[in-house]
Design a protein that fits this description.
There is one protein chain. The chain has about 325 residues and is α+β, with helices and mostly antiparallel strands. It has twelve helices and twelve strands. The radius of gyration is 22 Å and the shape is globular.
Length: about 325
């Protein structure tokens, strides 16, 4: 979509970006914005004229996402947190939409991936070190993220839902690898690195009903005992992590789809509907069916309101 400044800013806000004040924008401003969703990720392609922008700090509760900005054309200088990045084509940077942001750019094009914070599994202290720091997109893990971001921004509509979820998990995993690599000397200890890789493996295979500790251990060439040892000081055991993330996926799908509870449960590895219902209520405090019923009622109410409005317009 190509629009003037007001239209462009409205589209940015609708896409999940914080309000920005562009000091160079005038009456002749023209920008292009295209938004695609890939599972839990949102990919926003932007093309803008020369700009000098400021985004003010917001309440952290207003922003559940972090942003990975990938340059495709032009140059940008960004300041956020303790970081200051000079970006050229293919370079990327991690940004926090809730924090104060300043940037200046030539006429440029870039793709921004909005990633739910919970998906990255990187400690807050490490994120603080990475915010506003340039990541080289010409080689290594950064290059893979750069290529995937640019390609996915145009191809995301061709994915089936299951493919989108698995692809998004792979993109998040690559982003995590690129961010960890940028930490340099503060790379995680071997156990932490392996635990992170295993968590990424679990995330990408949540729909596999055979996902289990023995299989995970075998894939990573370690014993089941060693696997459990890796997670003994974590909030969740391996089995509990699998169950927790599957329940989160089920809740998200029940909120936004018309599938039955049984179908959604089976899709995410729960073969026993009764057992699933007990787990779901124990985690969220209400029944999965109640969530589905509430969602359908809201949809019906919205449609009815729309019909009433249309009907009102058609009446003489």
């Amino acid at each position: 979509m190509i629009g003037n400044l007001e239209t462009f800013q409205n589209e940015l806000a609708a896409s999940g970006f914080p309000p920005l004040v562009n000091k160079l924008a005038g009456a002749g401003f023209r920008g292009r914005i295209t938004t695609r969703d890939l599972g839990p990720l949102r990919l926003v392609s932007l093309a803008t004229p020369e700009s000098s922008c400021v985004g003010r700090e917001r309440d952290a509760s207003d922003s559940e996402n972090l942003a990975v900005k990938v340059m495709t054309r032009g140059r940008t200088r960004i300041e956020q947190g303790r970081g200051e990045a000079e970006l050229g084509p293919t370079d990327l940077v991690l940004l926090d939409p809730a924090r104060t942001l300043r940037f200046e750019s030539t006429a440029a094009a870039h793709v921004t991936i909005l990633v739910p914070r919970r998906e990255l599994r990187i400690r807050p202290a490490q994120i603080d070190r990475l915010i506003g720091v340039r990541i080289d997109g010409s080689h290594g893990p950064g290059a893979l993220v750069s290529v995937l971001a640019r390609e996915s921004a145009w191809a995301a509509t061709e994915f089936r839902e299951a493919e989108a979820l698995r692809s998004a998990a792979a993109v998040v995993e690559l982003i995590a690898v690129a961010l960890e690599a940028r930490l340099g000397d503060e790379q995680p200890a071997p156990d932490e690195w392996l635990r992170s890789r295993i968590a990424g493996y679990i995330e990408s295979r949540l729909a596999d009903p055979d996902l289990s500790p023995p299989g995970i251990a075998a894939v990573h060439n370690i014993s089941v005992r060693r696997l459990h040892k890796l997670f003994e000081d974590q909030p969740l055991t391996v089995a509990a992590l699998i169950r927790h993330r599957r329940l989160e996926r089920c809740r998200a799908e029940l909120t936004g789809s018309g599938r039955t509870v049984t179908a959604v449960a089976a899709r995410w590895g729960f073969s026993d509907p009764t057992h699933f219902s007990k787990l779901f209520k124990a985690m969220y405090g209400y029944n999965a069916r109640a969530l589905l019923t509430s969602n359908r009622a809201q949809t019906t109410k919205t449609r009815t309101a729309g019909l009433d409005k249309d009907g009102g317009q058609d009446r003489p």
